[in-house]
Every structure is written in structure tokens, then in C-alpha cells.
Amino acid sequence: MFKAIAASAASWRGVAIVIIAWIILAALITSLSPSIEEVSTNDAAEFLPNGTESLQATELRRAKFPANRGLPAVIIYRNPDGINDQDIARVAQIDAIIREANRPNIPLVISDFAQPQFPGADTPPQSPNQADTRPEISPDGTAITITVIISGPPAEDEFADTIEWLREIDDEIVVELPSTVQVTGPAGILTDAIAVFQTFDFRVSAITILLVLIILLAIYRSPLLALLPILCVGIALTVAQAIAALLTDNLGLALNGQVTAIMAVLMFGAGTDFTLFIVSRYREELPIREDKFDAIRATMRAVGPSIASSAGTTAAAMLALILALSGSLKTMGPMLAMAIIVMLIAALTLIPAVLVAMGRVAFWPVKNIQPSTKPTAFWPRVGDLIARRPGTLLVVTVIAMFVLAAGLFEFTPRFSFIEGFPDSVESKAGFQTLKSAYPPGELAPTTVLISKDDEDILQHLQAIEDISASLQADPAVDSVNSITRPFGQPINTPPPLRGGIQGGAAETTRHSPEGGNPEVSPAAQRLLSPDQTTTIIEVVLNVDPYDTDAMDAIPRLRQTLRNAVENSTLNGATALVGGESATNEDGRTVINRDFLVVSPIVVAAIWIILALLLGSIVAPTYLVLSVILSFAAALGASVIVFEYIFGHQGTFYDTIPFIFVFLIALGADYNIYIMSRVREETRKRGLAEGTKYAITRTGGVITSAGIILAGTFSVLTTFPLLNLFQLGFTVMLGILIDTFIVRAIMVPAIVILLRQTNWWPSKTPTLPLND
């Protein structure tokens, strides 16, 4: 097979066919696919598996509350000196502007200003000292909120335009400090997240291109060679993104900006590494062959199998993620596997075709072409040292790795996505304002849905009140709003002058004159479905709804809900707990399950591939163990850096599976390269000399490849979201540990210590990997 692949670039006709075919493919598939932005989503619920309670709650709410479909944007008005009559008039004017605009994607506005005593800014309250004529104000007396439900896909321009419009309303109204108006809530947070991701493609491309140019210019001192991977990877990335968009659009997958960003980073890193190995071998072949076509043919026969094995290992590890329940992992797996396969095909066809088409001018201004793998004095010394003291070096490196891994004892998981935003982002600033004035759970109340098909839920008011009281008793709950207590107080109890983002009238329900079903007041109407079979109970937590304390409360609330429903007249009704905190809790549960179930499968898949490639069960075992230890060391060291140097409040939990898969797969790649050469040279020179020679000949090129791959992942550290910063930093550190410690010292030391046992059950390596 590799002879045929090598022959494709061994003539001008073949070169022309390959280059033209790639250009046509890129143009055709791009024209047929939607843009990657059109099919991407950043809604966490979209990445939960079917059957998850929070997802069921989301689907039930969408079905039963069509006018309430969408995400809430919370407008918070704050005067730190205290809310006065002028402030109330201003907020009333903002409310009136929103309602009078009649924007089609704003189905619902929730505030006190829809009440008759608040017609607008021109008619301020007549009795500011009376509680029943004032809107609800925060407990500290400094803030008022308006909740605006925005419908439609958050990734669409109309959604973002509405958020921007809300943020501009106050420009003509609030002119005096210290009053501030900020838009936050789930809708504001998601819009800001999407805006950040939309700027990321350009940032990744620009910084990665610059980084690759600098590194390759330092290695080759040739601008044309430095541009080679940028051109070829750019074409391959265009094709891969178009395929990803088609798969997402037609298979109903959930694709987010994080996956597409990582796809670009992985393809640039792997593609540049593939280019480096091809160019390095091509430089070895050119001085000994007169014809450049013969040189490229020999090059691809030599490096093609190793490149294919490397890409195959990564793709297999990614495909194992299809067994995950987490939508982000399940989507990431096939998407990145597809991307690495596209990059492999480009490496075996497009890169050699462009390289040979450039001819010797590719190396300009260098005239005397020499093998780039010509060893420096450093790597022979490393090989000699390992050959003399393999046991000592193995012990030292293992101890060093365990010391780094000890940082895992300081691991503090973080789930608060908004905490990863820069302080300048308005939704984060608004969140901080909201937390300072209200119970933090006001930002994203936990939603309880109770539904009894074909039965009027209003027949069970006492049951709903009992359920509300049971939920209120949880220590993590600040207040509960339901159709029996829209202000957090039981039926007919006057509301206190305190916070809450809903507000309403003093009475929740009233019985009709005929003695029939109770009628629902406007304040409670929004919590009742139009068919009156379903009601919402909003549970406002006294902790950050995006943090672990809120997530820990969800299982308790679910159990409380089930018990209360079973012991009421609503026994048998559907009762679900949803919302942002519940979604995060379900996501955490899924991540834990996936890590425990999928990680061993990934490790087993890599072990099997290595066993087949090396014809041994001993070498693959210690190679896999070495990369697992490398992962632990990288994560442990990163935890210490994040918490004690960068001052982070913990490590984002949802990045751990990504980090594990990348470091296990990419670490195995470098082990394939070194063991391939060790096995080849052992057959020719014996174990000790063969290992030394393999280190000498591969040290420079593999180290360069590791630096390039680590560099591309370091691009994620320039991203303003903290979770991607931590992901990029940890993977970068892990690759460097693999490159300079595991691959360069630990693995060769184990090879020398085990001698022929390396190849058991084979006695000796009979053939190099590329035969």
C-alpha cells in the first residue's frame, strides 16, 4: 500500500493530479456544507445523554410552556447608595421600552412594572413609602431586576442582537453615576461565550501560523519549507471542518466551539509534525539520489508506515470516545478521529506532492542540503549516559514523575463556567453585581416541574404548597417561588420588601364566585402551563448556581421532591428537577462515569495497537504505563501552577477527560517513533548500540516535533476562557514531559534494562516497522 502511496508523488502527472484533486475536494465539500458556526451550540443541555433528568425537564418545559421557550436574560439595575424614586422611574422606563418594542424573540418580560401602578417613567409611584406600590428591591436595598426571556438559537445573530439591544437601552436613561445597568443571566452568559468562541478561529490560526513559522524557520532556515505545513494543513482543516459541519447537520450531533477549536489545534500540531518527519527524511534522501522523484518515493516508503501508525493510534483513541455518554466527548471522539484521518491522508498525498513540486528551491536560501537528522553532540551524550546508567536514570525519572503527580492531592474541581470569563465581560460583571445584592441563586434558579396529564394541577394547590415547603427546608435553598407562593411566602401571606427577579401581586390565587376552580393571579400565571396540567416551582439557592455546592444540593432536592410528591395527592405525577445547576450535576455524573468506563477502553485500544505493531506484549505494557504516569505528572504539576502561581480557584473538571485522551494518545505516538527506530537498529547493531543509535538519530527530529505540538496546544493559553487555558497548558506540559523525559530517558532506560524481554513473546525484533 505504501509503495502505491509513494508512487503518487513520484511523477509530475501524479503530483498534478494530487494537488488539483485536493483543491477541487476542498471547494466542493465547502460549497455543500453549512458553516461550522451555523451548526454549533454552546447549550450544556445539548451535550447530555437522553434520559438525563435535567434534559427531560428542559424538554417538558419547552413542550408545556411554549411562550416561555428560551433563555432568561437578567437585567440588573443597581445604585449602591440605595434605590430611590428616581431609580424606580428609570427602571420602569427600561421595562416599558422592552415591552413596547415587541421584538418577536422576546415572548415574556417578568417584572413588577407590568402592574397598573407602574405605567412608565412618566408616572412614578404615588406612594413610595407603601410596599404595595413599590417594585421588589434586593435585600440590601440597592438593586432591581427585570427578567427577559429570549427565544431562538443562541448562536444566531438575532439572539446576540437582542442581547446587545438590551445592553444599549440604558445609554440614554442612566446618565448619572453611581447607577449601573448590566445584562447577565444564562442568555447573557451564553451570548458572551459564543462571541468569545467566534473570535477564536482567527486567533488560533494567526498565533499557530506565527508559532509554526518561527519554529520551522529556526529548524530549516527556509521560508518556503516553513510555509509548507501552513498551506497543506490549512487545506486539510478546511475539508475537516466542512465534514464536521455536514456530520453535525445530518446526524444530529452536538458540536460546540471548544471541539472545533481543539480540532484546529490538533490538526496544526499533528500536520506540522508529519511535515517535519517527511521533510527530515527527504533531506536525508536528496543528497544520495539524483532524482527528486526517487527521493520522495524512498521518503514516503520509509516514513509513511510510522506516520500512519501514529495517526491510527490517535484516531483509535478518539473513536473509543463514541462509547461515552457525555455529548461533548461523544462528539469530540468521531470529530477529532475524522480530523486526524483527513490530516493523515493529506500527509501521505498532498504534503509530499507540494514538497516535490517545489523541488530543491524549497530549501532556499540553503544550497548545500544536509540531513536534518544529523546529530548534535547532545543526543550522543544522552545515549551514552542511558547505556551506562539505565537503572539510575529510570529510578530518578520515576521519582520525579511521582513528585509531580503528588500535586493531584491539591486538586480542587471547578464547574463555574462564568468564573472562567475575563472580568471585562459584562455577563460576569453583572453576575458579580447580582451576587452582591441578591442570593446568588437568583442568577439561574433551579426549576422543578410537576406535571399530571389530563388533570388540572390547580386541584392540588395544597400539595404544591406542601412540596414548596419541603424544598424550602433544604439548607442550600434561599427561597421557593410557586403558584402558591410567587414571592417565596405561603398563600395570602403579604410579600416582604425584598429581592427576587419575578415579583407580582400580593395574592396568589382567588376562588371564582361560582366556587369552581381557583383563578391564578398574574404573578403566578407564568408558573402554570396554558393547559393547566403542569406547574413550575422555582428554587433559588443561597450558593453560586454554577458551583459545586449547588450541584451537591441537586440530588437532595430530587429526593425531597420525590418523597413529597409520593406523599401528596400528586402521587404518580411527573416530577423533575432541571435548570443550570441540575444540568451541571448531571454533566458531572456523566463525566465521572465516562472517565471510569471509557478511559480503560482508550488505554486498551492503544495497548492492542502497540502490541500488534511491536509484536510484543511487554513493551506495550510499560509504554502505556509510562504515558499514564506522564498524564498524572502533567496534571499534578498543572494543579500546583494553577492554584499557587496563577491564583486560580481550582481546576475545571470537564477538561480532565480531554487532557487524558490527548496525553495518552499523543504520548503513545512518540513512543511509536522511538520504538520503531530502536527495533530497527537493534536488529542491525544489537540492543545497547541500537538503542544509543536510535536516540542519537531521532533525538533532534522527535524533540522538534514535540516542541511544535506542545507549542500549538499552548495557543489555547491565549484564550480568554479559563477552562481552555487550563486545557492548553496541561496538554502542553504533558507533551513536553513525554518528549524530554519519557521518550528521551525513561523508555530507552527500560529497553536496556529488559533487554530481550522487551520483545516477548518474540525473541528478537525480526523486521523494522517500516518494512
Description:
This protein is α+β, with helices and mostly antiparallel strands and 771 residues long. Helices cover 59% and strands 8% of the residues. The chain has 24 helices and twelve strands. The strands form four sheets. It has a four-stranded antiparallel β-sheet with strand order 2-3-1-4. The chain has a four-stranded antiparallel β-sheet with strand order 7-10-6-11, with helices on both faces. The radius of gyration is 31 Å and the shape is elongated. It starts with a helix and ends in a 17-residue tail after the last helix. The model is unreliable at 116-132, 493-517 and 766-771 (pLDDT under 50).
SSE layout and pairing:
Blueprint: H1 2-7, H2 12-32, H3 36-39, H4 53-64, E1 71-78, H5 85-101, E2 108-110, E3 143-150, H6 157-168, E4 180-184, H7 185-198, H8 200-220, H9 223-251, H10 257-285, H11 292-319, H12 327-348, H13 350-358, H14 378-388, H15 390-405, E5 413-414, H16 426-437, E6 446-451, H17 461-472, E7 477-481, E8 509-511, E9 518-520, H18 522-525, E10 534-541, H19 548-566, E11 574-578, H20 580-614, H21 618-645, E12 651-652, H22 656-685, H23 687-714, H24 722-754
Helix pairs in contact: 2-9, 2-13, 7-16, 8-9, 8-10, 8-23, 9-10, 9-12, 9-13, 10-11, 10-12, 10-23, 11-12, 11-20, 11-22, 14-23, 15-21, 15-24, 17-19, 19-20, 20-21, 20-22, 21-22, 21-24, 22-23, 22-24, 23-24
